[in-house]
Amino acid sequence: MEVVVTGISLISSLGKSLETSWENLILDRIGISLQQPFPELEARPLALVDEQPTNAIELTQLAVAAALKDSGLESPLPDCGVVIGSSRSQQAVWEELIKSKVESQKSKVASTPDSRTGRFLNPPLPTPEFLEILPNAIASIAARQIGATGVVLSPMAACATGIWAIAQGSLLIKTGQCHRVIVGAVEAPITPLTLAGFGQMGALATTGAYPFDRYREGLVLGEGASVLVLESARAAQQRSAKVYGRVLGFSLTNDAFHAAQPEPTGKSAIVAIKQCLERGNLTPQDIDYIHAHGTATQLNDKREAQIIQYLFPHGVPVSSTKGATGHTLGASGAIGTAFCLMALRHQILPPCTGLRSPQFDLDLIVTSRKAALRHVLCLSFGFGGQNAVLVLGK
């Protein structure tokens, strides 16, 4: 059963709509700036949607509403599946709760004495609805928003989350469990813990993100969300829906190598790309553009370049959009997919923003250009060696 995309939303540091983000990307604009949202941490380049870190739930609701509007659908949609993931979900809320608890303990504020010891206890902290701070909260809230009463899934696969969500949604349609699914990923990762963690790893850039550049410094954390409406081709045709493109194939593999570092040879990532192409009845020669993961870290870009050179020795145009949007972690694959679909629709190759001195022998797109695009490949490689690949058709 053929799966098509009939609606897209995209919220990023480049803009709060699909059209604005795409236009700014094509113009090679950068949504990254030096920010210090937390006074206890040093200023760093970040890619924020607003002036301050955003809220994951608000981002989800905006993205879902925009995707439905773009597709021409209206709630309630009881028979619509929901597959929306996040690598961080409500981590920001948990951090605030823990911070409040620590501050409360330090202040030694007394409330009611313990009946057995006579000692005063710390007062209970105000907490949000418990179910809304669990890891699956984003998918659950999206389901309530559209009135979905069927399948609700919440994948969490680090930076591979977005493509994993799209793959799961496509499978629900291909197996006949749903004829329509909203899929995607949402990320609001600008928190003290996330910044400190990546900082300790030495993975954060100090001036900006420069994917595949000889002088790349590391990744820049970014916020964002992208939600897609997937439908069976028959369902889309019955309501005369516009179609952005087709989901032709996907694959998910794991390196089983290290908690953070990619497997040096890229063997399981190569398997994922081959499987994806085979499932789409395609060969490497059929691919007209590759949206690379391109985090601008030393290890990722080197390995990814080697993989592309090995599988596509004939040369295929390549770019990473993280130099413009920052690295939105779990949402990056969904945002990359949205940009791929816009590339197919407008027949334009998006630039590898931030790239000035290419290190690798690839056809890296320095400035946007027109091209005849039929099939595009989107890559995501997450911590834990999680490899996700998606191929889309015009």
UniProtKB/TrEMBL annotation:
<comment type="similarity">
    <text>Belongs to the thiolase-like superfamily. Beta-ketoacyl-ACP synthases family.</text>
</comment>
<keyword id="KW-0808">Transferase</keyword>
<protein>
    <submittedName>
        <fullName>Beta-ketoacyl synthase</fullName>
    </submittedName>
</protein>
<dbReference type="Pfam" id="PF00109">
    <property type="entry name" value="ketoacyl-synt"/>
</dbReference>
<dbReference type="Pfam" id="PF02801">
    <property type="entry name" value="Ketoacyl-synt_C"/>
</dbReference>
<feature type="domain" description="Ketosynthase family 3 (KS3)">
    <location>
        <begin position="1"/>
        <end position="394"/>
    </location>
</feature>
<dbReference type="InterPro" id="IPR014030">
    <property type="entry name" value="Ketoacyl_synth_N"/>
</dbReference>
<dbReference type="InterPro" id="IPR018201">
    <property type="entry name" value="Ketoacyl_synth_AS"/>
</dbReference>
<dbReference type="GO" id="GO:0006633">
    <property type="term" value="P:fatty acid biosynthetic process"/>
</dbReference>
<dbReference type="InterPro" id="IPR014031">
    <property type="entry name" value="Ketoacyl_synth_C"/>
</dbReference>
<dbReference type="InterPro" id="IPR020841">
    <property type="entry name" value="PKS_Beta-ketoAc_synthase_dom"/>
</dbReference>
<dbReference type="InterPro" id="IPR000794">
    <property type="entry name" value="Beta-ketoacyl_synthase"/>
</dbReference>
<dbReference type="GO" id="GO:0004315">
    <property type="term" value="F:3-oxoacyl-[acyl-carrier-protein] synthase activity"/>
</dbReference>
<dbReference type="InterPro" id="IPR016039">
    <property type="entry name" value="Thiolase-like"/>
</dbReference>
